[in-house]
Specification:
Two copies of one chain form a homodimer. Chain A contains seven helices and eleven strands. With 242 residues, chain A is α+β, with helices and mostly antiparallel strands. Chain A is elongated. Chain A binds a DNA duplex (19 and 19 nucleotides) through helix 3.
DNA sequence: CAGTGGTCTAGACCACGAA
DNA sequence: TCGTGGTCTAGACCACTGT
């Protein structure tokens, strides 16, 4: 016997995928739905949790449950952090950047091979598609490398085109990709269920002297992103070096 | 005010990470823990759900809640498919390879830019760490490019060292990474829950003429793998080409 | 303020696993 | 059979959002 939460989830899913409930539309309140299905609110909430896990529904505390727009997968292009060449051209994509100075906490100090407490410039980049956030980046540079007039218009446009790459292109980049549950702040910022998964990319840029000039912590909802990386054949010269 | 489920989760997490509760040990029953913390069983279950989401605890219906052994993350190195330089050296890592010939179904034909029904050599690679499978690869080559005596010892050893890369190294490689729920066959092969997540890597190798010489579909349990990709500064010559 | 979702209780009953 | 986790109820109260 299928549990009640699942039969309810099936019914609501059918209404959503068939278009009877439109994207970005609000569902009836949980109390109303619980009445309609003759279940307790807790059971109904479990049904909604199923749909939330599938990415069909988004819960907003104090407002309601909303049908998510069908997924448009965006693409992260590895190497120099270009985000989504297709939608980047669309006006619907906005990237906001804010900056800050912090003292390196332990995990960042390790990552960037600087001593704990070193001054770092921190940039928080949020990428929106329409109203909904679909990418989150925190970027750290050694304070002395951070450009002074960074937050002008041209820099914002640049960050929108290549997702939040602040360092020059002539650097070696190492990107580590993993899938993991969102941290609580990420879950609330990206409006994800705690049980969902994000694709986390840690990008380290190194200049020709080996100094780490940028560390970027990128987080994307796991079901909305593909990351693509290309490797070219080595030149004989470079192969000899390795 | 931190919610009760979180204070309980914090307390249990501390007991686990400090070693007061050992890996693979059973926790007291939910009823007992609910008594001890003076909360309802539902609240206690929510606390355990937090730890479960963090991968610290595994629930087994009818048996209890168990502390999971800490995960040993393996690493996939992008570019030419080297798997896990650290554990690759360990005797515990085994890779088995079996081969087959198939006619390209639609999705593979699209991926490899050949016509539907073209003969392809299919290689299925399973990577074990001790008893448990931790990687699964299906690799396709145009039939005429598949080496004849592939499945001898040296090829198997080679596949173990560089995860299932069958084509020559002098190729351009494009790897697409996404997180998604496992397909049913993957879930059973990797012993994953249907609700879990795999890291899926699609690797396409192209020779200098632009022909696709290999397509690899790699699947790893999402919580046991990191994938790392490196990009080197372009030479002036290559930059001019792009 | 009213309306929404979030947390919590104190029970009941069901489904699974091992003896 | 017994002890375990899984589902569910009918309510209470809290926290967030908009008016």
């Amino acid at each position: 016997m299928r549990s009640r939460r699942h039969t309810i989830a099936d019914d609501l899913r059918q209404q959503i995928t068939s278009g009877r409930i439109q994207p970005s539309e609000r569902l009836p309140s949980e109390a109303d739905l619980a009445d309609r299905y003759k279940v307790s609110t807790l059971t109904l909430r479990h049904a909604l949790a199923v749909l939330q896990g599938e990415g069909l529904v988004e819960k907003i505390h104090g407002k309601g449950n909303f049908v998510r727009r069908p997924l448009r997968k965006t693409m992260y292009v590895g190497g120099w952090g270009i985000l989504d060449p297709w939608t980047a051209a669309e006006p619907a994509l906005r990237v906001t950047v804010s900056s800050n100075t912090v003292q390196a906490p332990a995990h960042l100090a390790t990552l960037m091979k600087v001593s704990v407490g070193s001054p770092l410039a921190e940039f928080t980049c949020l990428s929106y598609e329409g109203e909904s956030l679909h990418g989150l980046a925190r970027i750290y540079l050694p304070r002395d490398l951070a450009p002074a007039g960074l937050l002008d218009d041209s820099a914002s446009r640049q960050a929108a085109a290549r997702f939040a790459q602040l360092c020059p292109l002539q650097t070696a980049v190492r990107e580590t990709v993993c899938a993991r549950p969102p941290k609580t702040d990420e879950a609330s910022a990206l409006r994800l269920a705690a049980a969902s998964v994000v694709l986390s990319i840690t990008r380290i840029a190194t200049d020709s002297t080996g100094r780490i000039v940028e560390a970027a912590l990128l987080t994307f909802p796991g079901d909305r992103i593909d990351a693509v990386f290309t490797t070219h054949p080595m030149t004989d010269e470079r192969q000899a070096r390795a």
